[in-house]
Amino acid sequence: MEVGKIDKSNMRKIILDFPKQFRIGIEAAKNIYLKTGVLLRPPENIIICGMGGSGLPGDILVTLRPLDVFVYKSYRLPLQAGNGSLIICISYSGNTEETLSSFQTAVNRRLPVITITTGGKLEKLSKEYDVPCVKLPSPYVPPRLALGEMFAALLQVLQNHNLLDKNLIKEVSEVGKSLKSEKIKSRGKILAKKIFKKIPIIYTSRRFREIGWIWKNSLNETAKIIAFANYFPELNHNETVGFEKINEDQVSNEKLYVIILRDKKSSHSRILKQMEITKNIIEKEGVKVEFIDIEGKTLLEKIFSTIVLGFWTAYWLALEYKIDPTSIKAIDELKRRLKED
C-alpha cells in the first residue's frame, strides 16, 4: 500500500502531532477577555455553538461540566440562551453558516460573546462588532483533528474569566506531555482491520457518551463509512432488542461489529455488569463484540487517549478502503449547493 498516494494531506503526521495542539490552543487564548463590565457576575449557563469538528470541544466540556454547559448545533440560539448566558462560537474555518447565525443572533441580543477560529467570516465579524476572538494559528488542518487546539483554547478562555478550576489548564497541559500518539497507532491499525467492510457500532457508558459520538463522527468523515453510537444503560432499554432481527430481515450479522469502550476503574459496577451481559446477548445473535478498555490516570487522559485511538482507527480504515482520509466530498457539496441560493 502506497500510503502517500492515498493520504494526500498527510493526516498521519497531524495525528502524530496531535498532543502538541494543547499548548498551541492555550497560548492563543491567554490574553482573550471580555470587556470590563460585560460579565458582571458568573453566567447562568455557557452556550457553546459549533458544528462538526468545531462542536467537539463543547461536547468534551459537557463531559467535564454537565450542569451548566449546553452545546448547540444549529441556527440562531437555543432556548437556554438568556441574558445571563455566555455564548462561545467556535468555527475552525470561520465560515460555518450555522455558527455565523448563532453569532449574529447573540450580537443582536447583546449577549456576551467570545469566538474561536482560524479566520474567515467569523474573525471579520468579531472585529466588526468588537467581540473578543481567539485566533488559532496556521497551518489549517481538518477541524475534527484540530480538537486539541480548540478544546485547550476553550478551557483557557473560561479560565481567563475565572469560570474553570485552574487545575484543568494544568491537567490539559500534562495530557499534551503524556499522550503518546505514536504508541496508539498500531492499536488503531489492528482494530481497523477487524472492522474493515463492517458497520461499527460504538457503545460507551453515559459518562463517555460524547466520546462514542466522536468515534462515530471520525469513522464517518475519515473512513467514509456508516457508523453508530449509543450508551449504557439507556441502550439496554431499547437498542439491544433490535439485534433480534439481525441476519433475518435486515443486515447480515457478519456485517456488524460492536465496540464497547469500557472504563473498568471508575464505571459503576452495575454498568460494567450490563456491558458483560449485553456482549453475551449480542454475540448470541452472531455479531462480534469487542471490549476496548479506556486507559489513563485522569479523566482528560482517558478522554484524549481514547479519542486518538479513534482517530487512528478511522485513519487506517480509510487506507484499507484506499480512500483519502482528509477529503469530505459530501459535506463540500452540501456547502456549495447551500451557497447557490
TrEMBL record:
Family annotation (Pfam families): bact-PGI_C
Top-rank taxon: Bacteria
Keywords (A to Z) from UniProt: Isomerase
GO biological process assignments: carbohydrate derivative metabolic process; carbohydrate metabolic process
Domain SIS: from-to ranges: 36-161
Record flagged with keyword Metal-binding: no
Matches recorded under PROSITE patterns: SIS
Molecular function terms from GO: carbohydrate derivative binding; glucose-6-phosphate isomerase activity; mannose-6-phosphate isomerase activity
Entry similarity comment: Belongs to the PGI/PMI family.
Protein name: Bifunctional phosphoglucose/phosphomannose isomerase
Organism of origin: Candidatus Nealsonbacteria bacterium CG23_combo_of_CG06-09_8_20_14_all_37_18
